[in-house]
Amino acid sequence: MDLSNFSNTESGRIILMILVLFASVLLGWLVKKGMTFLYKKSRARHKTDAGKFLLITSFMRLAILLIGVSYAISLEPNIKSWTTSLLASAGIATAIIGFAAKDVLANFVSGTVIIIFRPFTVTHWIKVGNIHEGSVEEIKMLYTVVRDKRNRRLVIPNSKILSSDVINSSYREEHVAEIVKFEISYDSDVKKAKEIIREIAEASPLSIDMRTKVQKQNNDPVVEVRFQEFATYSIVLAAFVWLDDPKDASTIRWSLNEEVKERFMQEGINIPYPKLIIQDDHDKENKQSKNLYES
Fold first, then answer.
1. What are the structural domains, with CATH classification, of the chain?
2. Which residue of 62, 197, 237, 248 lies most exposed, with the fewest beta carbons within 10 A?
3. Contact partners, residue 44, CB within 8 Å, separation at least 6
């Protein structure tokens, strides 16, 4: 078949345009599959960043699609006749599309920034604001998937992540210090309470020794327990427990609370709680009147 004669007909040009667009979409899909295969193969040998592969794949697919659309449009010889009217309405169309897709564009730009500058990556343990916390599973162009402590997948828009304070516990090293607080009554033995907390925390399999050589030579404790403050009803003690994985922070806090509470009860360390005293002024007035009458 002579393509030059075929493209001279109206129906032929339409068919060619459809074929070009279909080929562009198909080629983009094949590029995605090929890049995914390369990523899985290279990930087994090296620590390859999934975000970079995603960014490269997205730009390659976008480039292929733009080239295909441009070529398909060029097949229409009468395109110059409506180019002027198209450009005249392009400003209005761009404003409408930009307003409707501003959130999508913001997430796309934020996703590109996250992938390029890498404030966090897959497997990092992060905390977004004071709400979301968990392990990063996927970084997409529009959103990031975080698996929290309850094994739920949180889909967080990338623009929300960049506009919030992000704590990355895995940025340099995964060792983190968890601060576990305990309250004792004012009449309790502070030194004894600190020794109990330190003993239980150091015996935990999750606690690790992060002391320097000098600290070990000085026999400094593995877990440091400090007198933090005078509270309204209690004395607050804080234990600094080093962990190998930030995911264990909740586990160590729960286990220490239970074990320390039991030891406190055995050793006579009181855990305070507020008490409410209700006084009935009416009964008090009746008692005073009765005493006056009897006198």
1. 3-81 (no CATH), 118-168 (2.30.30.60), 176-267 (3.30.70.100)
2. 62
3. none
